[in-house]
Amino acid sequence: MAGGRVARTRIVVMAIVALGFVSPATVRAASGYTNRQGVDACDDPSSGDLTALYSGTPFWDFGYYLGGAEAKAVGCAPWTASTLATARSIGWGFTPIWDDLQAPTSCGPVINGVRHDFAARMSSSTTTAYNEGVASANAALAAMGAAGFGSADTVWLDIEGYDRTQQACANAVDAYVNGWSAAAGVDSGVYGSASGSGVSDWAHIAHPPFAVWIADVGVNLNTVWNDSHVSNSSWVTDQRMHQYRTSQHAVVVSMPHGYDVSCLNTWADQGSNLDDETAESAEVNSPTGDASCYGTAQ
Amino acid sequence: MRRLLIAAIALAAAAGACTAPISGVGARPAESTDPAAVTSASASPRQATASGRGVADFAAAGAEAWALTDSGLFATSTAGASWVAITPAGLDLTRTLAIGVHGLSGWLVASAGDGTRLLALTTHDGGVSWTTHALPGSSPDGFASVAVDAVDDTTVWVSVRSPLSAAENVGYGLRSLDGGATWTAVTLPSGEPVSFRTPRDGWQVGGAVNQSLSRTVDGGATWTPVRVTVPATDAARRVGYSDPVFFGSSGVLPVFLWTLGGGPLLVALYTTESDGDAWALASVETAARDGSSTPVAVIGPRAWLVKTDSGLLSTADAAGAASVAATGLPLPAVGMLTATGTTVWALGGSSSCTVAKTDCTAQSWLDRSTDGGVTWASAGP
């Protein structure tokens, strides 16, 4: 239940990860609650970029594209085991993104008067869209396991902004998210534009996502609260992230498209560097609790 | 026109009142050879140039170049030897998104109102006076990135990337054919910057990882995908395009080739003698062993500089690139290279934090070389 206290208890998972060439003795994957800043990007970063973006920045977690039909169509390739191991060895934690079916045909966003339908689209039938959401969740959980993530780690479904002037479009997307969350349970996270994806809708569906990643750039920097489109009374128990910058560039990082920046107040794989939040139980928060993420807003 | 979008220009969004109409009138002051004396710089964590200013955006065409810093907009007509402040009066730097320059004409794009609309500030006298025009359209969720391509004194493009996720490269263009007085929305293949050789012949990189390249020959009305033939030995690699650079009908197209999960980045340099109608592979250079993207400066129709792990590679005849013993350039910190005329510009930077990744600051700087990349000196305003 999105608006209630934590729906389940998660246990900090310490696991030895043996991936690629990194010594398993030095790389431990740990998950828990965090209140740090992170980035996300479509790029397959080099080891140099992973180091440059971690060192000298307030960023701890990397949202990378784990898979999904839309990710494949647009060219966001999943990281290799080698890249994951390298990132872990540097200290990165992860918020894996599952970029699968998007809004139905003729429901894509209208940008400056032109509709942009997505490459991979869900059915306009709510029944079918629900089942597609279930299937997407099952595929994502399998991919999470294959990538070495813990059974309690959140996987984030990417729901891009769509044409919300058409109720039929909203119904299909909400049904898809409902199916996703029903199947993924406590692992269900959903990313979406605060206004364009209808994040607030998801607090009222039968199976709300356990956590939401709210994209609303340039406002409420470095906090997960006070978004004008998402009530502070929903997803209150360490169940939010807020993407507040997109397409950021740093001279020392060669990723052509830069990276997006988010404030995390949620459960996440944290690599080998646990946030002290991890020692806490899930908290019922408000804008005065975990008011902002560590480090200055970017 | 060459442009470097550098970094960390905060998207100006909802906060704050509407920017007041911006205009600056008065004689352009003489350029100062002492960068620190151009104007007083406010304290800023990004300060890093010789004068203490962090460079946020840079655009150059011919001898004229503009640098947007954390303390204002500066122009040089001496290839960086001296700079003059040309900041429009009343400009809110936190709302400034992109700049472009062509001779004494230049354009600066900033967000307006609640961050859902754009303004274009135009000068045709080197920054002495400015006029402001509202750009058509709006974006309810703001703008992911904005770029300016100043084709000539009258033709200007603004490209806008919409703030969808990193996977979706969607946007649109705004074109002026009268120097910035009026603007028209134009559909573009992606939200990336455009690069026009002439008012009708333009190029745009696209895709989530720059895997596509499109061309228009009718001023942006229609766009056609362009692909180059990758060497058979590299056919399995991923391909990333960058904008071609033209010198009349001749041009150079740098193409990046890499593999997922690591391995070296190759820079394939293609040349054309036919306005870009056909491209021929001239050389392939190994740039970064770990696959990091790398800057390339195209100096002439058969001349370029490529940054590698060990230094700069240079060629003047489209083949046989040789190492350059660059002096005065902290190469590992160089993130971007570009050339205008005989001047090569390098943008570099670094970042650091105090304990536990807090109080993090970024620094950036601008260097220049006028001898093909051999000797470098600070060029920051």
Helix content estimate of chain B? under 10%
Number of helices of chain A: 5
Tally of extended strands of chain B?
A: 30
Number of helices of chain B: 0
Structural class of chain A: alpha/beta
**What is the quaternary state of this protein?**
heterodimer
Q: Globular, elongated, flat, extended or rod-shaped: what is the shape of chain B?
A: globular
- What does the radius of gyration of chain A come to? 18 Å
Describe this structure in words.
The complex is a heterodimer of chains A (298) and B (381). With 298 residues, chain A is α/β, with parallel strands linked by helices. Chain A is built from five helices and 14 strands. In chain A, the strands form two sheets. In chain A, strands 1, 2, 3, 4, 5, 6, 7, 10, 11, 12, 13 and 14 form a twelve-stranded mixed sheet that branches. A two-stranded antiparallel ribbon of chain A has the order 8-9. In chain A, helix 1 (47-54) packs parallel to helix 3 and helix 4 packs parallel to helix 5 (167-184). Chain B is mostly beta strands. Chain B contains no helices and 30 strands. The chains are: A alpha/beta (298), B mainly beta (381). At the A-B interface, helix 1, helix 2, helix 3 and strand 13 of A face strand 28 and strand 29 of B.
Write the layout of secondary structure elements.
The complex is a heterodimer of chains A (298) and B (381).
Chain A: E1 14-16, E2 28-34, E3 37-40, H1 47-54, E4 59-63, E5 65-67, H2 69-74, H3 81-90, E6 93-94, E7 97-98, E8 110-111, E9 114-115, H4 126-146, E10 155-159, H5 167-184, E11 188-193, E12 211-215, E13 240-248, E14 259-269
Parallel strand pairs in A: 3-4, 4-6, 5-7, 7-10, 10-11, 11-12, 12-13
Antiparallel strand pairs in A: 1-2, 2-14, 3-14, 8-9, 13-14
Chain B: E1 2-5, E2 55-61, E3 64-69, E4 72-76, E5 84-85, E6 96-102, E7 105-112, E8 117-123, E9 131-134, E10 145-150, E11 156-161, E12 171-176, E13 184-187, E14 194-196, E15 202-206, E16 212-216, E17 224-226, E18 238-241, E19 245-247, E20 250-258, E21 265-272, E22 280-288, E23 296-300, E24 303-307, E25 312-315, E26 322-324, E27 334-340, E28 343-354, E29 358-369, E30 377-378
Antiparallel strand pairs in B: 1-2, 2-3, 3-4, 4-5, 6-7, 7-8, 8-9, 10-11, 11-12, 12-13, 14-15, 15-16, 16-17, 18-20, 19-20, 20-21, 21-22, 23-24, 24-25, 25-26, 27-28, 28-29, 29-30
